[in-house]
Write a structure and sequence with these properties.
Elements: H1 22-31, H2 34-40, E1 75-76, E2 81-88, E3 98-103, E4 125-130, E5 136-142, E6 153-160, E7 166-171, E8 177-181, E9 205-208, E10 215-217, E11 229-231, E12 237-240, E13 251-258, E14 261-272, E15 278-284, H3 287-301, E16 309-316, E17 322-331, E18 337-344, E19 356-364, E20 372-377, E21 383-387, E22 399-403, E23 416-422, E24 427-435, E25 446-453, E26 466-472, H4 499-502
Antiparallel strand pairs: 1-23, 2-26, 3-4, 4-5, 5-6, 7-8, 8-9, 9-10, 11-12, 12-13, 13-14, 14-15, 15-19, 16-17, 17-18, 18-19, 20-21, 21-22, 22-23, 24-25, 25-26
C-alpha cells in the first residue's frame, strides 16, 4: 500500500521547451485588432514556465450557438498544441454531463492488478463523474485503448438511482475513489435520500472501489453540496460547500480518526478572524449534526461563508508550506467574489493540531477572467483555471487560464495567461486534470478536460458532451498567413483554415 505522499506522483513531469511561434501570432495582427498587437510583442520571458510553455491565446473566442454535431476541435488552443476528442456522450456507456476527472494515481494498494491487467498501470485509467439529476454514474476509460479501431474502452464503473449530481472526484492515497454529490439540502432542492444514511439532508461523499465499483457512503465528511476534494500530506481531506452564502459557501477540513479510514473523524470549518482574508482558524463541528447538514452546523458555529466556492487543489510551495487553492465562482455578501483563494495551511508553522491558516486572494477577476470554477496544478506550480460563465447573453466562450506561481511570497499569483477558449456559447469546460502521461503517441504531458454542452432552449435537445485531451503537437503545422483569406483560428493551435472545414 502506498502512503499519502505518493498520491501526488502524477505531479512529476518532464519539462520540455518549445520555441515560441511568434511569427504565427504576428500574422494575427492582420486579422484581429488590439489583443493581437499586445500578444505579438510577447517574448519567451512572458510565457508560463513549466511542462506547457505556450504563447497565450490573445482573446476569448466570439462564440456561436450549439450545433447538432459538435466540433472535433471545440477549443482554440495555442500554436503548437493539438486537441483530440477521444470520447463522446453515448448512454449507458458514457452518460451526459461528464464533470470532474482523475486517474489511478498509484496502484490499488492490494495484490493483483487493476482490472486484471498485469504490470504497471499507474495513470492508465481515467475516471470521471457525471452530474446528472438522478441515476448518477462514475465511468472509466482505458486510455491505452484510445487508438483502437473501435474507439476507446469506456464502461460504467458504478451507478445508482439515488445518486444525483455527482461532481467532485479524487483518487485517495490508499487507492480508492471519492465521488461527491453537489446537492443542496431541502431548503432549495429535493434530495434522493440514501437508505444507508437517511438522516442526511443534502449531498454525500462515496468511497468507491476502482475495480469492482462497490461504494460506501461516508457521512462523517458532512452532508452538503460538495464539489472539489483534495488531501494534504497528513491524510486530511479538504472540501467546500457549493451552496451560496450566507447559509453555505464554507470551506472544510476532515481529519479521520484513523489515517486512511474515512468512516469516522472530526469535521472542521474555516473561520477568518475578520472579513474573508487574513488569519484564520479551523473550528470543530458537532459530529452528529454534520451528518445531517454540515452547512447548518457551520453557520451556527460562526464559520466564514463565501459565495459559491467550487473546486479545491492543494500543492506545496517553495518554502515547504502546503497551500490550498479554492475557486470562488460567485459574488459574496460584501460584493467581493469571483476569485481564487490561496489558503496557507500552516503545516510547518502551526500548532501540533495544525489549527491555523492564512487566506489571501491569489487571483482576482476584475479583467477578462471571470467565474473561476475547476482547478488543477501542474508540476511547476502553475494553476489551471476553467471559467463557468452563465450561458445567457454570452458572446464569448468560456476560457481556460493559467496562473503562475507566487514568487514574491505575498500570497498572489505572478501573472495569468489565457491557455484556451471554447468556441460555443452554451458550453463549459469541466474537470481539468493535468497528467504526466500521454496515451496518444506524443511526448510530454496531457491536459484532460470535458466539454458540457447545455441543452436548455433547444428543441429537440442538443447535448453530445465530449471528453478532450490537449497536448503539444510533435509535428505542428503552421498555415501561411494570407490576409483576408484565413480567419484568426487558422493561426491558433490545430484549428482549421475555416470553421466549416472542421465543424
Amino acid at each position: 500500500m502506498n502512503g499519502p505522499d505518493e498520491s501526488r506522483g502524477r505531479k512529476r513531469v518532464r519539462v520540455r521547451t518549445r520555441i515560441p511561434r511568434l511569427l504565427a501570432y504576428a500574422a494575427l495582427c492582420i486579422c484581429i485588432s488590439s489583443p493581437a498587437v499586445a500578444l505579438a510583442m510577447a517574448t519567451e520571458n512572458e510565457q508560463p514556465r513549466g511542462p506547457f510553455q505556450f504563447t497565450p491565446v490573445p482573446a476569448s473566442s466570439a462564440c456561436t450557438d450549439l450545433t447538432a454535431v459538435p466540433s472535433e476541435k471545440p477549443f482554440i488552443v495555442p500554436p503548437g498544441y493539438e486537441q483530440i476528442v477521444f470520447e463522446r456522450e453515448a448512454e449507458p456507456r458514457f452518460p451526459n454531463s461528464p464533470d470532474m476527472n482523475t486517474v489511478n494515481e498509484q496502484g490499488a494498494g492490494k495484490p493483483g492488478a487493476l482490472f486484471g491487467i498485469e504490470g504497471s498501470h499507474v495513470g492508465r485509467f481515467l475516471f470521471r463523474t457525471h452530474e446528472v439529476r438522478e441515476n448518477g454514474a462514475v465511468t472509466v476509460t482505458d486510455m491505452e485503448t484510445v487508438d483502437d479501431p473501435g474507439g476507446p474502452v469506456t464502461r460504467t464503473l458504478a451507478r445508482r438511482p439515488d445518486w444525483e449530481r455527482l461532481d467532485g472526484i479524487r483518487w485517495t492515497p490508499w487507492g480508492t475513489i471519492l465521488a461527491a454529490e453537489e446537492v443542496d439540502n431541502p431548503r432549495n432542492a429535493p434530495v434522493l435520500l440514501d437508505p444507508r444514511s437517511p438522516e442526511s439532508l443534502a449531498g454525500l461523499v462515496y468511497e468507491i472501489d476502482p475495480e469492482t465499483g462497490a461504494a460506501q457512503v461516508r457521512p462523517a465528511i458532512g452532508s452538503r453540496s460538495h464539489e472539489g476534494l483534495d488531501f494534504d500530506p497528513q491524510g486530511n481531506l479538504y472540501g467546500i460547500s457549493e451552496e451560496p452564502a450566507p447559509n453555505g459557501g464554507f470551506i472544510y477540513r476532515f481529519v479521520p480518526d484513523h489515517r486512511g479510514d474515512l468512516a469516522s473523524g472530526q469535521l472542521y470549518a474555516l473561520k477568518v478572524a475578520s472579513g474573508e482574508t487574513g488569519p484564520a482558524t479551523w473550528i470543530p463541528l458537532d459530529r452528529a449534526s454534520v451528518r445531517i447538514d454540515s452547512d447548518a452546523t457551520a453557520t451556527a458555529a460562526g464559520a466564514t461563508p463565501y459565495q459559491r466556492p467550487e473546486d479545491v487543489e492543494i500543492g506545496r510551495n517553495a518554502t515547504g508550506t502546503d497551500t490550498m487553492f479554492v475557486a470562488v465562482t460567485g459574488f459574496g455578501p460584501t460584493g467581493v467574489g469571483q476569485r481564487v483563494l490561496a489558503i496557507d495551511l500552516r503545516e510547518p508553522r502551526g500548532t501540533s493540531d495544525h489549527d491555523t491558516a492564512y487566506v489571501t486572494d491569489y487571483v482576482t477577476t476584475g479583467g477578462e477572467l471571470s467565474r473561476p470554477d475547476n482547478l488543477d496544478l501542474d508540476p511547476a506550480g502553475n494553476l489551471y483555471i476553467t471559467e463557468d460563465q452563465p450561458p445567457a447573453n454570452r458572446v464569448h466562450g468560456n476560457d481556460i487560464w493559467v496562473a503562475t506561481p507566487d514568487e514574491g511570497n505575498d500570497g498572489t499569483a505572478e501573472a495569468v495567461f489565457r491557455f484556451a477558449t471554447l468556441k460555443e456559447c452554451r458550453a463549459e469546460p469541466t474537470g481539468i486534470y493535468f497528467d504526466e502521461r500521454n496515451p496518444f503517441g506524443e511526448g510530454g504531458p496531457t491536459l484532460y478536460v470535458n466539454v458540457m454542452r447545455t441543452a436548455a432552449g433547444n428543441n429537440p435537445p442538443i447535448r453530445h458532451d465530449l471528453a478532450v485531451a490537449i497536448m503539444e503537437d510533435e509535428l505542428p503545422g503552421l498555415p501561411m498567413p494570407i490576409a483576408g483569406l484565413l480567419t484568426p483560428d487558422a493561426f491558433v493551435g490545430d484549428s482549421e483554415p475555416t470553421e466549416s472545414a472542421s465543424d
